């Protein structure tokens, strides 16, 4: 990250303001934050008794699950592309 300019931006997730720092655009960081916020609100709607810590953990678990499934799908598609057509 030292070679690239670090971007700082404030975002709101589930009613809390966070400072994000990264090499992505502030628009990208806001999109990430709004996606997390949306997922937390979605999970809260299904489980209103969860406190914010448990809600955050469930949101992280869901995000990692989705990421792993996408990686599996990418690998599957890459393997299909490598197969000889016949």
UniProtKB/TrEMBL annotation:
Keywords: Cell cycle, Cell division, Cytoplasm, Septation. Signal peptide: none annotated. InterPro entries: Bac_CellDiv_Activator, Cell_div_ZapA-like, Cell_div_ZapA-like_sf. It is found in: Cytoplasm. Its main location: cytoplasm. GO terms for cellular component: cell division site; cell septum; cytosol. GO terms for biological process: division septum assembly; FtsZ-dependent cytokinesis; septin ring assembly. Activator of cell division through the inhibition of FtsZ GTPase activity, therefore promoting FtsZ assembly into bundles of protofilaments necessary for the formation of the division Z ring. It is recruited early at mid-cell but it is not essential for cell division. NCBIfam families: PRK14126.1. Homodimer. Interacts with FtsZ. PANTHER family: CELL DIVISION PROTEIN ZAPA. This is Cell division protein ZapA. It comes from Planococcus halotolerans. The gene is zapA.
């Amino acid at each position: 990250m030292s070679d690239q300019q670090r971007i700082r931006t404030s975002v709101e997730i589930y009613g809390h303001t966070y400072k994000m720092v990264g090499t992505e655009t502030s628009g990208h960081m806001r999109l990430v934050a709004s996606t997390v916020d949306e997922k937390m609100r979605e999970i809260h709607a299904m489980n209103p008794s969860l406190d914010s810590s448990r809600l955050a953990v469930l949101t992280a678990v869901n995000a990692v699950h989705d990421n792993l499934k996408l990686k599996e799908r990418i690998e599957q598609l890459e393997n299909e592309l490598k197969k000889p057509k016949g």
